[in-house]
Amino acid sequence: MIIKTSPDEIQNYLVDASNFTGYCDTVYLPSNENEIIEILKESNSKKQKVTIAGNGTGLSGARVPQGGIVISIEKMNKILEINPESKYAIVEPAVILREFQSKVREYNLLYPPDPTEKNCFIGGTLSTNASGEKTFKYGSTRVYVEKLDIVLADGDQLKLERGKFIAEGYELTIRTENGKEYKLQIPIINMPLTKNAAGYYCKKDMDAIDLFVGSEGTLGIITKAQLKLVPHPEKIISCIIFFDDERDALQFISDARNKSYQTRIDKSNNTIDALALEFLDENSLNFIKEDYKQIPSNAKAAVWFEQEVNKDNEEQLFDSWMKLVYKNKGDEENAWFAMNEKEKEEIQGLRHNVSLKVADYLSQNNVKKLGTDSAVPDENFMKFYYFCTEEMKKNKFNYIAYGHFGNSHLHMNMLPNNEEEYNKGEIIYRNIYRKAVELGGTVSAEHGIGKLKTEYLLNMFGEKVISKMAGIKKILDPNLILGVGNIFNEKFLKTN
Ligand SMILES: Cc1cc2nc3c(=O)[nH]c(=O)nc-3n(C[C@H](O)[C@H](O)[C@H](O)COP(=O)(O)OP(=O)(O)OC[C@H]3O[C@@H](n4cnc5c(N)ncnc54)[C@H](O)[C@@H]3O)c2cc1C
Questions:
Q1: SS3 151
Q2: Burial class (CB in 10 A: 0-12, 13-18, 19+), 244
Q3: pLDDT above 90 as % of the chain
């Protein structure tokens, strides 16, 4: 097994894409489950902290160590099986999402979870319940997890399969391969009715798999996963529409969202049913304008939509979308349609570039990520969006706003240019999170809590619930070695 100790070799493991930094002495690169078991047994006996590293694209500092050792799973990167008949794949955790998606495409299959950043590891996406453009239609990562192999903090193995361990009400009992039984008390909470990656999944009669998906490296190391696949759509229309007035763009999204829901209720495939509904505000467009001649000079907002079509309904659906564009005063003349796979990737690239430019900006100004990740129920989304933009304008703070608006999910990215501004921005950021919670939303829809948002999770659920969530960790990891600092502040691990 490769073990890295020199500062030069380990510095890449001390950061993630949030620009948050940490420290550790040693990075282990196990190449199989047995090596992971050995490292964990030793760390557990020494009560030594262990941080699990995926590919470091996370935006909440979750894989950034604060002492102890790092286990990077990067060597466990094989696709073990793709089964086109039963539509599933079995993968090791360090398979890169982009490569996985293109491999299953060869079998005419689709793995729908698709965060904008596709260089992440599957293990990272499982641990954060990642989601992306296609989540509006297909849901987040959790929906696609059928089986998980996990090594717990003491080196014991846990094999989960949907339906194997189901909670009785709020009591969940799981059994490891050594026959050890854990009885877990699931906190009784109302999960937000939005997509969500904030804290442990807690629901009456829940499946144990759902506890581990989104647990951000705090409960065990995922060593293998069986993932559900779906048939690849025959064809996808992909288009960016520019708008002269932001309100028209927002109304367009709201109309398209409602029509999509109706189509799903009607089980029709001849009317609008968006696959993706993504929004970019004027500041986002200005941020990338010099790289994209397609952006008209008067554009105040843009919406990127996608829809699955087939040769029978393509024309009719295209027509329905254009009627909706016309109704909402979209700029038909400058509409950017992807005519082939390459152009579809270019459109996807534009959306990705906005996120990348934000990351560049932060690293140039040497400040941590200050971007919201809240989703709220659809009916409160407009109120939430205008609250956020108003906060920015009132405080004269530079920002760019974009996001997965089909899911009523906003990334309000603040652009501080030094530490002092960052501190000012944090106050606005808090107001925004409080508003999201007040409106029935979540403090993290997809990036997870990590080490940067523990305060906001506390605000969302309160001390009692957070203590109960921490209680689950304390039972599964009594020596408190795994992912310490993620999800809840360490003080919740120390109290009874
Ligand atoms: C430009 C950009 C755009 C992004 N867009 C999106 C988006 O649209 N949607 C979205 O959801 N996210 C997005 N992200 C965030 C990020 O890509 C996801 O959170 C991703 O899932 C992280 O994967 P990773 O492999 O990089 O994990 P890391 O950042 O390395 O780790 C994330 C967490 O997973 C844990 N972990 C990793 N592997 C394992 C394992 N095998 N077992 C247990 N725990 C493990 C780590 O300990 C850590 O807690 C974006 C990031 C960037 C930089």
A1: strand
A2: middle
A3: 91
Atom nearest to 52 CA in ligand 1: 47
Q: Is 446 in the pocket of ligand 1 (CB under 6 A)?
A: yes
Q: Is the CB of 485 under 6 A from ligand 1?
A: no
> How confident is the model at residue 368, as a pLDDT?
83
Q: Among 400, 393, 396, 363, which Cα is nearest to 288's? A: 400
Q: What is the pLDDT of residues 150-177, one digit of tens each?
A: 999 999 999 999 999 999 999 999 999 9
Architecture of the domain made up of 79-231: 2-Layer Sandwich (3.30)
| Residue 320: closest CA among 278, 377, 262, 407 | 262
Mode of pairing for the β-strands spanning 171-175 and 69-72: unpaired
The closest of 208, 267, 299, 264 to 406, measured between CA atoms, is 264
Q: What would the pLDDT profile of 41-52 be if each residue is shown by its tens digit?
A: 999 999 999 999
Q: Alpha-carbon distance 30 to 224, whole Å?
A: 14
Tens digit of each residue's pLDDT (9 = 90 or more) over 419-430: 899 999 999 999
Torsion angle (degrees, nearest 10) of CA 418, 424, 428, 430:
100
Ligand 1 centre and the CA of 80: distance in Å? 21
145 sits in which H/E element: strand 145-151
Q: How far apart are CA 202 and CA 454, in angstroms?
A: 17
CB-CB contact of 41 with 151 (8 Å): no
**Secondary structure of residue 359 in the 3-state scheme:** helix
Among 237, 417, 266, CA closest to 340: 237
pLDDT (0 to 100) of residue 50: 98
Q: How far is the CA of 377 from the centre of ligand 1 (A)?
A: 24
Tally the C-alpha atoms within 13 A of residue 241's C-alpha that lie toward its C-beta. Answer: 28
Candidates 49, 84, 55; CA nearest to 69 is 49
The mean pLDDT value for 7-19 works out to 94
Q: Are 41 and 65 in contact (CB under 8 A)?
A: no
Question: Does the CB atom of residue 22 touch ligand 1 within 6 A?
Answer: no
CB of residue 54 inside a 6 A radius of ligand 1: yes
Answer whether 72's CB lies under 8 Å from 121's CB: no
Statement: residue 454 has pLDDT above 90:
yes
Backbone angles phi and psi of 116, in degrees to 5: -55, -35
Ligand 1 near 24 CB (within 6 A): no
**What predicted TM-score, i.e. pTM, was given to this entire model?**
0.94
pLDDT in tens, 246-304: 999 999 999 999 999 999 999 988 899 999 999 999 999 999 999 999 999 999 999 99
Tokens of 67: 């002492």
Locate the domains of the chain by residue range. Answer: 2-72, 79-231, 235-438, 454-494
Q: What is the CATH number of domain 2-72?
A: 3.30.43.10
Domain boundaries 235-438, CATH class: alpha beta
